[in-house]
TrEMBL record:
The chain crosses the membrane at residues 20-39, 74-98, 118-135, 167-188, 200-221, 241-259, 293-316, 336-359, 391-412, 424-443. This is Protein translocase subunit SecY. The central subunit of the protein translocation channel SecYEG. Consists of two halves formed by TMs 1-5 and 6-10. These two domains form a lateral gate at the front which open onto the bilayer between TMs 2 and 7, and are clamped together by SecE at the back. The channel is closed by both a pore ring composed of hydrophobic SecY resides and a short helix (helix 2A) on the extracellular side of the membrane which forms a plug. The plug probably moves laterally to allow the channel to open. The ring and the pore may move independently. Belongs to the SecY/SEC61-alpha family. PANTHER family: SECY/SEC61-ALPHA FAMILY MEMBER. Its main location: membrane. It is found in: Cell membrane; Membrane.
Length: 461
């Protein structure tokens, strides 16, 4: 492996691409630590400490995982890349139901560029809306004048004499800065795509996830004891560290196995006789991924389940009815059987929903027919379409079960081994799936450069 790494940096073009990618990721991480002007960071930390877990804190933490952002820190990159991801998902969904956009997708490179242009415009609009409501919620001036915006900014500490024009001036500037921050991240991702290596947007998200790993590891080691302890006491001892290490390796192995798993459908190409030569007639395979939906079902399911707790907490606060507080506790993250059951059910639902959007058996059947290929034992056309749909339903069930297992592993690890949710989050869930899938994509991109120059790839023996 060390020899393969050495070979990577002996190729000038590959070395230059990797160096540029690392530099741009460093720019992203530096910008993620620059706060917005006039934000009192001490008050911001106190506010999140008072809220604890649940409600807005869980929502911001969940969104931060897959948006390459730090919503609990109001920085210039506070929104991360989430508006661009949202815009991309919106246009991908619209492409399946809106005829003009569907026709635009079929125009090839020209259509793709046009859709990317529309996506950028939608990203700017979403940035303005999201940053305004985010700042209005997190940094707005309340009736008591208690705001995380630095009080030295106001002309008076008396809430009745606050100059609202100064606040609105700051809000406009802050919204513009956060919007420009997201657009800049979008530009960084495109530069990595064009001049670096790997998928730029995915690498930004992975960098945001991996940046939390040192803090989680230090927290685990700080709370651990260099001795054997009783599992029932909740203390973290040597046996906990060993179990956590074994579980981490096992989970990573399982994630890699399923993410790379495929159901290969045998295909036969028709024979064509031209003159005295016979073309075609070869056997090939149509690979169908077991986890066709990727990480999207976990993202949708976990985000959707945050709202019931948030809504019930708000209703309980304003009505003082005990039933709403009880429902809020029921929907607390990983605290009840009902929450876990709803989580698994939503993952299965979104797995089938997202697979139905991204994989169209009818289109695949038509493409096979147009290229003169067929699946042995099934007539081209409707029979092939029905067969592909049946196979996809079955393997999606397995993929959804895997996603559900990976999604609840952090809850099990946190409850049974007594580690914090921040540490347990690296044993499953959205962050782990994103990190593994992006790492594999990066390795494949590097392998393509090595193989092109007659070197062995990183994952070859």
């Amino acid at each position: 492996m060390l020899e393969k790494v050495r070979v990577i940096f002996t190729i000038p073009e590959l070395r230059r691409k990797i160096g540029l990618t690392i530099f741009l990721l460093a720019v992203f991480r530096i910008g993620s630590q620059i706060p917005l002007p006039m934000i009192d960071q001490l008050k911001l930390q106190e506010m999140f400490a008072q809220q604890g877990n649940g409600g807005v804190s869980d929502l911001l933490q969940q969104v931060s995982v897959f948006s390459a952002s730090a919503l609990n820190q109001i920085t210039i990159f506070g929104l991360g890349i989430m508006p661009y991801i949202s815009a991309s998902i919106i246009f991908q969904l619209l492409g399946t139901v809106w005829k003009p956009l569907e026709e635009l997708q079929k125009e090839g490179e020209t259509g793709r560029k046009k859709i990317n242009e529309y996506t950028r415009y939608a990203t700017v609009a979403l940035c303005i809306v999201q940053s305004y409501f985010y700042l209005a919620t997190m940094a707005g001036v309340g009736e008591d004048g208690n705001s995380i915006v630095n009080q030295a900014f106001w002309t008076s500490s008396d809430p009745a004499n606050l100059d609202k024009s100064l606040y609105w001036g700051w809000a406009i500037v802050a919204v513009a800065i956060m919007t420009c921050g997201t657009v800049f991240l979008m530009w960084l991702g495109e530069q990595i795509d064009e001049f670096g290596i790997g998928n730029g947007i995915s690498l930004l998200i992975m960098a945001g996830i991996l940046a939390q790993m040192p803090g989680a590891l230090l927290e685990l080691l700080y709370n651990a004891k260099p001795e054997l302890t009783n599992f029932a006491t909740g203390e973290i001892g040597i046996e906990h560290i060993v179990v956590l290490a074994v579980v981490f390796v096992a989970v990573i192995t399982g994630v890699v196995f399923i993410m790379q798993g495929q159901r290969k459908i045998p295909m036969q190409s028709a024979k064509h006789v031209r003159g005295r030569r016979v073309y075609g007639g070869t056997r090939q395979f149509l690979p169908l991924r077991i986890n066709q939906a990727g990480v999207m079902p976990i993202i949708f399911a976990s985000s959707l389940l945050l709202f019931p707790q948030f809504v019930f907490q708000a209703l309980g606060r304003y009505t003082n009815w005990a039933v709403f507080n009880s429902l809020a506790e029921v929907f607390a993250r990983g605290q009840s059987f009902l929450y876990v059951a709803c989580y698994i059910a939503l993952i299965y639902f979104f797995c089938y929903f997202w697979t139905a959007i991204t994989f169209n058996p009818k289109d695949v059947s038509e493409n096979l027919k147009n290229f003169g290929s067929f699946i042995p034992g099934y007539r081209p056309g409707r029979r092939t379409e029905e067969y592909l749909e049946k196979v996809m339903v079955r393997i999606t069930y397995v993929g959804a079960g895997f996603l559900a297992l990976v999604a609840i592993i952090p809850t099990i690890v946190s409850a049974e081994l007594g580690v914090s949710p921040q540490v347990a989050s690296f044993y499953g869930g959205t962050g782990l799936l994103i990190a593994v899938s992006v790492a594999f994509d990066l390795v494949q991109k590097i392998d393509s450069h090595l193989v092109m120059r007659n070197y062995k790839g990183l994952i070859e023996g």
